Structures are given as C-alpha cells and as structure tokens.
Structure to design on (114 residues):
C-alpha cells in the first residue's frame, strides 16, 4: 500500500506493511494533522480513533524512517533515527522521503496513493 505524504516542504511517499494495523490506518485515510516532535528522534501524529492491534507483536524497536503505531497512547510515531525497543509499538511501514524534511515539518497529510 503506497501512501502520499504531504509535508511543509513537499510531497513524499511511504510504503505500508501488510498487517492489520496498517490496513486499519489505510482505511482512515486521508488524515491531516499537526506534526509534533517527541524527544529528539520522533515525529508524532495524535489520532482521534484507535487502530487495530490484531496479531501485533508485543514490542518493536523503531528504525530510521519507520512509521509505527504506539498502541498505549494511540499515536503514529515516525522515527528520524534508531528508536527504542518499546512494548506496544507496532511497525506499519516506511517513509520513503527525506528525513530532514520530516524532522522540520509541523504539518502532515497522509493520503492513499492511486
């Protein structure tokens, strides 16, 4: 599943994994939101609705460019560098764009790519 990702500085893409959490996210698109920094390594999007956690592993270690869902807080977390090993973190896919652009952005829009 390809996703169009619009940031302050341009339009990029992402590729979602084939799992229930990613499919749940895909069904909610388009999503437009404020993009917050969390620590020095993550950009986060706070979701209004929870995503599916069916068949999700107990924990995951984030990597640079990963798009993940942090189930305990119900937010999307995108890693700019290696992330922590965290219970409730679910891999959803990979941001295919410029991580510098992601790190500097304050708004984001996710859309299904045709």
């Amino acid at each position: 599943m390809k996703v169009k990702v619009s940031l302050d500085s341009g339009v990029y893409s992402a590729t979602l994994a084939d799992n229930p959490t990613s499919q749940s996210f895909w069904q909610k698109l388009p999503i437009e939101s404020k993009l917050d920094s969390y620590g020095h390594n993550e950009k986060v999007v706070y979701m209004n609705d929870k995503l599916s956690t069916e068949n999700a592993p107990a924990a995951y270690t984030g990597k640079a460019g990963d798009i993940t869902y942090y189930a305990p807080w119900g937010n999307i977390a995108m890693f700019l560098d290696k992330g922590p090993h965290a219970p409730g973190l679910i891999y959803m896919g990979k941001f295919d764009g410029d991580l510098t652009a992601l790190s500097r952005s304050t708004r984001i829009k996710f859309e299904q790519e045709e």
Observations:
- The first helix runs from residue 20 to 28.
- The first strand starts at residue 2 and ends at 7.
- Residues 2-112 form a domain with the Cyclophilin fold (CATH 2.40.100.20).
